Amino acid sequence: MAQQFKVLYFASAKDASKTDGDKFEWSDNINAEALTKILLARHPDLAPILKVSMFAVNMEYMDQDLSWTVQPGDEVAIIPPVSGG
């Protein structure tokens, strides 16, 4: 069986993707830039949201320097800015 990772969508990312999560086949060297391309191929409406969203991997926010990579079995959350009070 192919190794996979999971992506969870929250708030406006959930609305744009019309789902709360997806599974993707894992491959080497999926960094934030590659992940963004993978997500946009499946959900083009995410484009404006991904520009302002944070990534969290296994419930830990990832650095803005984008030096991390996705590993098999990871759970990646797309967390858009939250407004309200």
What does this protein structure show overall?
Keywords: Cytoplasm, Molybdenum cofactor biosynthesis, Nucleotide-binding, Phosphoprotein. The modification 1-thioglycine is found at residue 85. Pathway: Cofactor biosynthesis; molybdopterin biosynthesis. This is Molybdopterin synthase sulfur carrier subunit. Pfam families: ThiS (PF02597). The structure is a single chain. The model has no long low-confidence stretch (mean pLDDT 91). The longest helix is centred in the middle third of the chain and has 11 residues, at 32-42. This protein has a 5-stranded mixed sheet. The radius of gyration is 12 Å and the shape is globular. With 85 residues, the protein is an alpha+beta fold. A hairpin with a 2-residue loop joins β3 and β4. The chain contains 3 helices and 5 strands, in the order βαβααβββ. It has helices at 11-17, 32-42, 47-50; strands spanning 4-9, 21-25, 54-57, 60-61, 75-79.
Q: Roughly how many Å apart are the termini?
A: 45 Å
Total strand segments: 5
Strand order of the largest sheet: 2-1-5-3-4
**SSE sequence, one letter per element:** EHEHHEEE
* Mean model confidence by pLDDT: 91
Backbone structural class: alpha+beta
Distinct helical segment count: 3
Uncertain residue segments:
none
- What kind of sheet is the major sheet? 5 strands, mixed
Strand content: 25-35%
**Structural shape:** globular
